Amino acid sequence: MTYIMPLVLFESVFSLEEFIPHGHCYLWKPKLMGLHLISDLLISVAYYSIPIFLIYFTYQRRDLPNKLIFLLFSAFIIACGTTHILDVWTLWYPAYWLSGLVKAITALISIYTVLTLVPLIPKLLALPSPRELEKANIDLQHEITERKLLESALRQSEIRYRAIVEDQTELIARYQPDGRLTFVNEAYCQYFGKPRSTLVGHYYKPVIFEADQARIVEMINSINLLNQVVIIENRVVVNGEVRWTQWVNRGLFDEQGHLIELQAVGRDIHHLKQIEEALFKEKEIAQVTLHSIGDAVITTDGTGNVVYLNPIAENLTGWNQQDAYGLPLAQVFRIVDPETCQFLQNPVNEALQEGQLIKPANSTLLIDRNGGEIAIDNSAAPIRNRDGEIIGTVIVFRDVTQNRILSGQLAWQASHDSLTGLFNRREFELQLEVAFFEAKTQNWEHTLCYLDLDRFKIVNDTCGHVVGDELLQQITALLQKGIRNTDVLARLGGDEFGLLLRQCCLKDAVQIVDAIRGQLYEFRFTFQDKMFAIGASIGLVEINLESKSIASLVNSVDAVCYAAKNKGRNRIHIFDSEDEELLEQRGQVQWVTRLRQALENDSSAKQGKEHFCLYYQPIATITPTGLQIDHYEVLLRLLDEQGNVILPMAFIPSAERYDLMRLIDRWVIRTFFSQWSLMINIDPLHQDKTQKIFTLNLSGNSINDDELISFLYEQFEEHNVLPESICFEITETVVIKSLTKANQLIRKLRQIGCRFALDDFGNGMCSFSYLRNLSVDYLKINGDLTKNIANNSVDAVIMEAITRIGHVMGVKIIAECVEDNAILEYVRALGVDYAQGYLIAAPSSYI
After folding, report:
1. Is CB count within 10 Å lower at the N or C end of the chain?
2. Which helix (H) or strand (E) holds 527?
3. Contact 153, 102 (CB under 8 A)
């Protein structure tokens, strides 16, 4: 009875009446039906068994690389087995759609498996063969054997080295940087009369004469990789006697260049020092005389009378040795002040009185025997005997006439612009300091002007820098004609000029500057067959008793000049302390200092220092994707000295204007990458199997930075960050302006696994036209579209079009500014993949 029930069930399900039309062919040939049924069932059993073994094998081999291909093979075999079962089932029940769907899935899995397998083949072929591994093992064994032989040879060498050192008559010692002795030879022990046990492990300092200890420490501290050897002569105490020694100190460094030990080789030079003292007087005279060769030299006795003139001194003074001998120096060496023409005190008299080197600071003129004048540089020094008594003087001087001429030229170049001959920025700032001082102390009124040429860049880019320089010279001549003799005109750099109208009130200054503006506007510069109109944007600020500081004047005039350019160029803008636009621009200037300080401060800075920090905002999946991915956008925040959060829009415009965004982007990348391994690998809260993607924003300055890609490669390698976990976000407006650069960056970084998102999509009128040329992974729809989607049908249609086209291109869609449930449900209905906004989660300093 137990066997009858399954049979009845089988006949009821697979009865002949249930055959579909094409299945009746098996009724004509029953053996064919049996063969077909048994074959398909056996194939299905095999197909379902093989994946089980594959999955079990990959699970047991956790270190197995490329597990994905095994899983794809398993899915492919299971799909094939299911296809065979459905072929049997279809004989009785016409499930064509189900059979077709399974076959389609099988086809997709097959194609995806092939596409995954193709790039793996070169990697698998690149793996070493067993023969190569065996050879590598043999080479390793040979290397180990060779290393053992080298170690043995090294020990033998050390034994021989120690024997050689011990046999040396010179004093040899090794000591650590703090002065602790680690080794001394036998000669060292015998010289100081102490056993080795009382020296090794103790400091060398006690054997050094006390007066020399500080000098020795200073010289030893100067030893480094660039100065590895220092020779020191110092006194030591030997059995209560002070003796002179000479030591050759050599630093020993490790492979990283760190000083690990020092070695000193010394010898007794006490007898040589005694001889040296006996010859001190002769040596001193010889050294001073030899030092003077090439210059004019006159020596005198202790009373200031001439003893010797070298040939150069004879030539410059007009006196020969025979005539000058015994004469007072003041008669042979006459010097005057070049400005007052008054005779100066002879430096020899000062050297005799003060007993030290005398070198006059002021320039000096020498009056020779014939009355001629020569510009000289001179110095006088006393000559002492062994007991320190002054026995004479030596005066050294040389002709510096040509040097004075060159110095004057250098002084001019230091204060003037080489192209236009005008004052440079440094000299202009000095003149501005004088004007500010006069306004404060004498209540004088001056006017400070900045001139920024309009359309100068067109000439430079069109005709080249040489032609641009010619234009600047012509503009300079034009400006000089329009100012007074008392005014100060300077080129501050590029096409910017500074003008200081001295003792000129604001009303008169406006008339002068407006005339200059008109002349520049009417000026036409011609090069070959091209004619250019220039013009200038000019800012004015008054310097008076109420001016706060030079820095505020410079910031103010820069702001009004910028305002003049923003308002249409070829105009004058006068500073007004209540001008809101100027206040905003001055605020942007102040932001520059704050941002630079924030970049320099550590991100872990305590309260009391303004610094940058990173915030994170989740991006949530709102449609079933089957992928476990935690997605976050990395956001920049500025914390002020009280710890209050300053949002980016408060300082980003200033950073963009003053070219700081590139530095800020690099700070964000460097800081986040350094924290990445901590978040992913160390923090136990993140040790799960969920994939994490972090989105970092890139500015237009960074996109156009040719060194950005090299910087990113270095950061990936230095911090061991997985490129697959990083997504870079670029705004649509930046891409439009720098499409070529953006495309190059995206292509190179996608090659290593990075993702890309296009932010604020939908702003531009030609969004879809350039999207075909970009390979991005995500489109972030402009937040303004998202906010109005529930109430604005046009925005809803635009978002729906973006979503559909994005999906056709294989791009995921992210909706920004999702702030309530109504917006969330609307974007979910449109098929948007991800949502970001305060409804999902607010930005936070932790994940």
Report:
1. N
2. strand 524-527
3. no
Segment (H or E) for 452 = strand 446-453
What's at 540, amino acid-wise? L
Count other C-beta atoms under 10 Å from residue 491's C-beta.
25
Give the end-to-end CA distance of the chain in Å, rounded to a whole number. Answer: 65
Q: 301 in helix, strand or coil? A: strand
* Residue 614 near residue 671, CB atoms below 8 Å: yes
195 vs 218: CA distance, rounded Å? 28
Query: pTM value?
Result: 0.41
Interatomic CA distance for residues 278 and 169, integer angstroms: 28
Q: Which of 524, 557, 502 is nearest to 455 (CA)?
A: 524
Which amino acid, residue 520? L
Q: What distance in Å separates the CA atoms of residue 698 and residue 705, rounded to the nearest whole number?
A: 11
373 token code pair: 């004048």
Using DSSP, state whether 456 is helix, strand or coil. Answer: helix
Q: How far apart are CA 690 and CA 123, in angstroms?
A: 27
Extract the tokens encoding 586.
């001055």
Rounded to whole angstroms, the Cα distance separating 287 from 764 reads 81
Q: What are 242's strand-pairing partners?
A: 237
How many CA atoms does the CB half-sphere of 237 hold within 13 Å?
11
Is 401:374 a contact under the CB 8 Å cutoff?
yes
* Amino acid letter, residue 460: N
The 10s digit of each residue's pLDDT in 134-193 is 887 888 788 888 888 887 777 776 666 666 666 677 888 888 888 888 888 888 888 888
Nearest one of 793, 769, 781, 796 to 833, comparing CA atoms: 781
The one-character DSSP state at 238 is E
Whether the Cβ atoms of residue 78 and residue 47 lie closer than 8 Å to each other: yes
Residue 363: partners with Cβ closer than 8 Å, 6 or more residues away: 338, 375, 404
The closest of 738, 737, 594, 568 to 658, measured between CA atoms, is 594
- Per DSSP, 644 falls in state -
Nearest to 415 by CA among 402, 404, 424: 424
State residue 768 phi and psi, 5-degree precision. Answer: -75, -25
For residue 627, is pLDDT > 70? no
Query: Nearest CA to 816 among 795, 787, 844, 778?
Result: 787
SS3 content of the chain, % helix, strand, coil (to 5): 50, 20, 25
Q: Does the CA dihedral 100-106-109-111 come out positive or negative?
A: negative
> Please, are residues 538 and 572 in contact by the beta-carbon 8 Å criterion?
yes
Identify the three-state secondary structure at position 140.
helix
The two beta strands, 726-731 and 755-761, are parallel
Query: SS3 for 765?
Result: coil
Answer whether 802's CB lies under 8 Å from 781's CB: yes
Give the chain's length: 847
Cβ atoms of 616 and 847 closer than 8 Å: yes
- DSSP bridge pairs for 695: 633, 727
Residue 96 CA, chain-centre distance (Å), reads 65
Q: Mutual orientation of helices 708-719 and 661-677 as an angle, nearest 10°? A: 20
CB atoms within 10 A of CB 206: 12
Beta strands at 530-533 and 524-527: parallel, antiparallel or unpaired: antiparallel
**585-606 per-position pLDDT tens digit:** 555 566 777 888 888 776 554 4
Q: What are residue 488's DSSP bridge partners?
A: 500
- Residue-level pLDDT at 689: 44
